[in-house]
Design brief:
Blueprint: H1 2-11, E1 16-20, E2 41-45, E3 50-59, E4 66-73, E5 76-82, E6 93-101, E7 107-111
Parallel strand pairs: 5-7
Antiparallel strand pairs: 1-2, 3-4, 3-6, 4-5, 6-7
Bound molecules: zinc ion (ZN).
Length: 112
């Protein structure tokens, strides 16, 4: 149920995260019950769409090189593409500029 709501928001390019009603822990990846205390969760916007880059790599699989990284926002980690004008480095602050679901059904997150 929460996963379906999460995906519907993502389809509309809206990023929300399930947080526990009781202990306020993020339930990530999205699930109906808190991973810590099994209480119900509710979808909320994160405090910020800014996070920091934990690790990254460059893919040469596409027509032009593309940087992918693990970005931590508000206690959750996402794998996304990095479109920064400066060279990526661990610890740099990135902001989610777009998110959604691709034609093949895969969620995507774009940062710069
Ligand atoms: Zn909880």
């Amino acid at each position: 149920m929460i996963v379906e709501k999460f995906l519907n928001c993502l389809k509309d390019s809206k990023f929300v995260v399930p947080y526990c009603d009781r202990c306020n822990a993020p339930a990530w990846p999205p699930v109906d019950c808190c991973y810590t205390c099994m209480s119900k969760v509710k979808l909320k916007c994160t405090k910020s769409l800014k996070g920091h880059l934990i690790e990254y790599t460059t893919s040469y699989h596409l027509s032009k090189p593309l940087v992918f990284g693990i970005i931590e926002i508000d206690g959750i980690k996402l794998v996304g593409s990095v479109h920064s004008s400066v060279a990526p480095h661990v610890g740099m602050i990135l902001k989610m500029r777009n998110c959604g679901i691709s034609d093949n059904g895969t969620p995507y997150y774009e940062f710069d």
